[in-house]
Amino acid sequence: MAIRSVVLAVDDDPRLLDAYQALLEARYEVLTAPDGRAALDILQTRTVDVVLLDMLMPGLSGLGVLDALRHLGIETNVIVVSAVNDSETALEALRLGACDYLTKPFHLSHLERTIRRLTEHGAPAVEPPSRPSCALPHALIVSADLGLRASLAVALRTRGRVDAVEDAGAALAVLARTRPSVVVVSEDAVATAVRGQWPAAPIVVADPRRPDFETLLPAIIQALGVGHADVRHFAGPVPRVIAHVSAHFRRTTVEAIAATVGLSTRRLASVFAEQMEMTVTEYMAQVKLEAERPQLTKMVRRHAFSTVTSYRAQ
């Protein structure tokens, strides 16, 4: 009998905890906690693979839980699931160690895919191409272009696992521990370095100066589909949306994107959500957060932050 991954849902709304239990218990062992302090009690006695963490709770907040986990040395994967749609809060959560930040309401399939990506991260990355792999399709994106890297990373996480890094050195570090389904690079020198370590690497090259997403995305999906059944293509206006966000991720709007692709905002919302299982606004927010991750990592390494709430001292 296979050992099931353990998911801990933390929320002060009992109806949402019941919903998590009903939706996830077929695949995972689901634990629940009504507040942050109860969650820490569980995390100090149980090994938990994924924590679904609300932000606004009585007593210890979601940020307080993240800070306490860091200071207690408890390692787990935290997905913040919150009605707080604020970039500062999201960035602070990521700085404190959260793996992802989803805003309520969210698409169930998006949540399930995020949990699956985290719980199956250690699964074998390479299967014989003669049959579909049990592991998720896995893309490694290597580009110094923030917009290209972030927009692709967020989009491709709707299809499988993604590692997104800036340069050849970081890419080789990823390849030392895993073999992705496809390596997306934006420089010939990076492709050469990758082939030096892995001669048979399936490489797709993107031109960072003028990336053609209408050609690039099908090539990536084709590579992901080797050994993995039913990897969905990006169709209709979605590649153009990704292209626009790639070029203008720091400052754009849903209205500007709709005008670029020639659709009403309502029609764009419907088509995009059907393929991506997130809204256009959520996609833009996720791309901004993805672009901020390297800087956040440097900040965490460079500075020691004081404890907001010391659970250990209580």
Structure overview:
It is a single chain. By secondary structure, the chain is α/β, with parallel strands linked by helices. The protein has 13 helices and nine strands. 46% of the residues lie in helices and 13% in strands. It has helices at 14-24, 36-43, 62-72, 87-95, 108-119, 146-156, 168-175, 188-197, 213-224, 238-248, 254-261, 265-276, 280-302; strands at 6-10, 29-33, 50-53, 77-82, 100-103, 138-142, 161-165, 182-185, 203-205. The chain has two domains: 6-119, Response regulator (Rossmann fold, 3-Layer(aba) Sandwich), CATH 3.40.50; 138-278, Rossmann fold, CATH 3.40.50. Helix 4 packs across helix 13 and helix 10 (238-248) crosses helix 11 (254-261). It is globular and about 50 Å long. The chain starts with 5 loop residues before the first strand and ends in a 12-residue tail after the last helix.
Give the tags.
single chain, 314 residues, alpha/beta, Rossmann fold, 2 domains, five-stranded parallel sheet, four-stranded parallel sheet, 13 helices, 9 strands, globular, disordered C terminus
Provide a short characterization of the protein structure.
By secondary structure, this protein is an alpha/beta fold. The protein is built from 13 helices and nine strands.
Alpha carbon gap, first and last residue = 40 Å
Give the CATH architecture of the largest domain. Answer: 3-Layer(aba) Sandwich
Helices, by number, come to 13
How does the helix and strand content classify structurally? alpha/beta
- Quaternary structure of the protein: single chain
Overall CATH class of the largest domain: Alpha Beta
Helix-strand pattern: EHEHEHEHEHEHEHEHEHHHHH
Low-confidence stretches: 122-134, 297-314
Helix content: 40-55%
Total beta-strand segments: 9
> What is the radius of gyration?
20 Å
Strand content: 5-15%
Q: Biggest sheet: strands, sense, closure?
A: 5 strands, parallel
What shape does the CA trace take? globular
Spatial arrangement of strands, main beta sheet: 2-1-3-4-5
CATH topology of the largest domain: Rossmann fold
Average pLDDT figure: 84
